[in-house]
């Protein structure tokens, strides 16, 4: 077993569908939606998640393994994000198309044509296929053609979906040869503490804490609360379609911002010697016992795993590995003396009852995460005699309050006390 992480990429294509098969594919995405809805419904009724795939597959007019992929995605969505809405409300079911997720060589297939195109065949319904050729950027087509002809890339699941009324296929491929550097070969550990309105980073080497940064993003919290109120209002008025629109807008807004934040985390990490980014494994926490109100609130308030996933994905393309640690006590432990008690923390202030050390509490947590990461990599934990000043970076206000622009983020991105600008 190697510890190295494989490089995964999603390739996006437009579908040039042969003949009049487009409606067949659209019908299948509607069927995928009802599979999604039924899955959410059963899960809410408390049905064991292990038996849901078979129960749903019995009624669904889709290829069986495709149904299973869609069920798995719906359960993943519940687990990750919208199920844990601000007030603990389960996500509601919806209308409209849902991506048809399919296994390669089961639910869909690809092949090279004599003309040098890539032909696709998606099993929209049992024994009914949608066929045609893929269109897309040269880079993505190149990788896919390489994947079809060599063992360097492995083709995985794909999603057929409609975007602005155009049929698309998003194909996951894994590079089997190019892997991310082994995390054991790291000389710096970046502890990442993700919160509702910020993310705190600490870079720890064998010499001690190299630097620390807190990226504030109050607008994500603000917008999520605002959208929640709006959705509640239209829900009470029985306007489901508006609610769906709002939810889509909120999702795009949050996703866009989280991509920016994850980009920033990776960029910051790159300044250090062979970094390894370390996250808290929140799933582990949820499965275990009482995880305390702070953790509870965090799970309910931000799509943490989305941010962790985006960061880990972007980092892998910069050859930066990621590691995961158990989040127990990361917010209650004093990074200087190790004294651990819940009373150490008062919102954003940390005040150790043992040694009187004071700190920005999220930064303190990121130090603890880095320390756990160092232990995981089997280094000696360096003595922490002093911690650097906390440096804060804040996203600029996002402009008009009643019309959040999700597709055109502010050009300047971050502003860091006038010293750091990220243009992406
Ligand atoms: Zn202390």
Your description of this structure?
Residues about 80-90, about 285-290 and about 395-424 have low confidence and may be disordered. Helix content is about 35%, strand content about 25%. The protein contains ten helices and 17 strands. Helix 1 crosses helix 2 and helix 2 (about 50-60) crosses helix 3. It has helices spanning about 20-45, 50-60, 65-80, 140-150, 220-235, 240-270, 280-285, 290-300, 305-315, 360-375, and strands at about 5-15, 100, 110, 120-125, 130-135, 155-165, 165-180, 190-195, 200-205, 210-215, 275-280, 320-325, 345, 350, 360, 390-395, 415. The longest helix is centred in the middle third of the chain and has 30 residues, at about 240-270. The protein has a seven-stranded antiparallel β-sheet. A seven-stranded mixed β-sheet has the order 12-11-8-9-10-16-17. Strands 13-14-15 form a three-stranded antiparallel β-sheet. The protein folds into two domains: about 5-180, no CATH class; about 180-424, Ribonuclease H-like superfamily/Ribonuclease H (Nucleotidyltransferase, domain 5). With about 425 residues, the protein is an alpha+beta fold. Bound molecules: zinc ion (ZN).
Key words describing this protein structure:
424 residues, alpha+beta, Nucleotidyltransferase, domain 5, seven-stranded antiparallel beta sheet, 10 helices, disordered C terminus, binds zinc ion
CATH architectural group of the largest domain: 2-Layer Sandwich
Category from helices, strands and their pairing = alpha+beta
Helix content: 25-40%
Number of domains: 2
Strand proportion: 25-35%
Question: Which regions are unreliable across 5 or more consecutive residues at pLDDT < 50?
Answer: 82-90, 287-291, 396-424
Order of helical and strand elements = EHHHEEEEHEEEEEHHEHHHEEEEHEE
Our measurement of the CA-to-CA distance between the termini, rounded to an integer number of angstroms, reads 37 Å
Q: Can you summarize the main beta sheet?
A: 7 strands, antiparallel
In this entry the ligands are: zinc ion
CATH superfamily of the largest domain: Ribonuclease H-like superfamily/Ribonuclease H
Strand element count:
17
Overall spatial form? globular
Please tally the helical runs, counting DSSP H or I stretches of 4 or more residues: 10
CATH topology of the largest domain: Nucleotidyltransferase, domain 5
Strand sequence of the main sheet, in spatial order? 2-6-7-1-5-4-3
- The radius of gyration computed from the alpha-carbon positions, rounded to a whole number of angstroms, is 23 Å
User: Can you identify the CATH class of the largest domain?
Assistant: Alpha Beta
Mean pLDDT, to the nearest integer, reads 81
């Amino acid at each position: 077993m190697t510890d190295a992480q494989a490089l995964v990429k999603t390739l996006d294509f437009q579908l040039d569908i042969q003949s009049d098969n487009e409606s067949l594919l659209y019908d299948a995405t509607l069927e995928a939606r009802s599979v999604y809805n039924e899955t959410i419904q059963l899960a809410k009724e408390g049905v064991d998640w292990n038996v849901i795939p078979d129960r749903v597959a019995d009624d669904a007019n889709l290829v069986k393994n495709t149904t299973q992929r869609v069920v798995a995605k719906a359960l993943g969505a519940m687990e990750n994000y919208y199920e844990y809405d601000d007030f603990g409300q389960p996500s509601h079911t919806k209308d409209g198309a849902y991506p048809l997720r399919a296994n390669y060589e089961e639910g869909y297939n690809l092949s090279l044509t004599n003309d040098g195109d890539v032909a696709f065949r998606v099993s929209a319904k049992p024994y009914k296929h949608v066929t045609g050729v893929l269109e897309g950027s040269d880079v993505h087509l190149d990788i896919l053609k390489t994947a079809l002809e060599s063992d360097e890339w492995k083709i995985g699941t794909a999603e057929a979906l409609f975007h602005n009324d155009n049929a698309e296929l998003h194909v996951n491929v894994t590079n089997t040869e190019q892997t991310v550097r082994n995390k054991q070969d790291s000389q710096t550990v970046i502890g990442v503490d993700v919160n509702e309105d910020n993310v705190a980073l600490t870079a720890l080497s064998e010499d001690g804490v190299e630097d620390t940064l807190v990226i504030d993003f109050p607008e994500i919290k603000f917008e999520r609360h605002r959208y929640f109120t709006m959705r509640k209002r239209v829900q009470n008025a029985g306007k489901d379609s508006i609610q769906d629109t709002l939810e889509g807008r909120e999702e795009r807004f949050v996703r866009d911002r989280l991509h920016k934040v994850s980009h920033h985390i990776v960029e910051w990490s790159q300044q250090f010697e062979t970094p390894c980014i370390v996250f808290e494994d929140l799933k582990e926490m949820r499965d275990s016992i009482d995880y305390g109100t702070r953790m509870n609130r965090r799970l309910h308030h931000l799509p943490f795993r989305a941010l962790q996933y985006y960061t880990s994905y972007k980092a892998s393309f910069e050859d930066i590995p990621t590691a995961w640690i158990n989040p127990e006590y990361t917010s209650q432990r004093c990074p200087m003396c190790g004294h651990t008690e819940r009373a150490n923390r008062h919102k954003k202030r940390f005040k150790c009852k043992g040694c009187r050390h004071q700190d920005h509490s999220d930064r303190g947590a990121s130090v603890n995460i880095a320390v756990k990461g160092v232990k995981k990599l089997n280094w000696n934990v360096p003595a922490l005699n002093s911690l650097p000043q906390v440096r804060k970076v804040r996203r600029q206000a996002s402009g008009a309050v009643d019309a959040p622009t999700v597709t055109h983020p502010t050009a300047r991105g971050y502003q860091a006390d006038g010293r750091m600008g990220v243009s992406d």
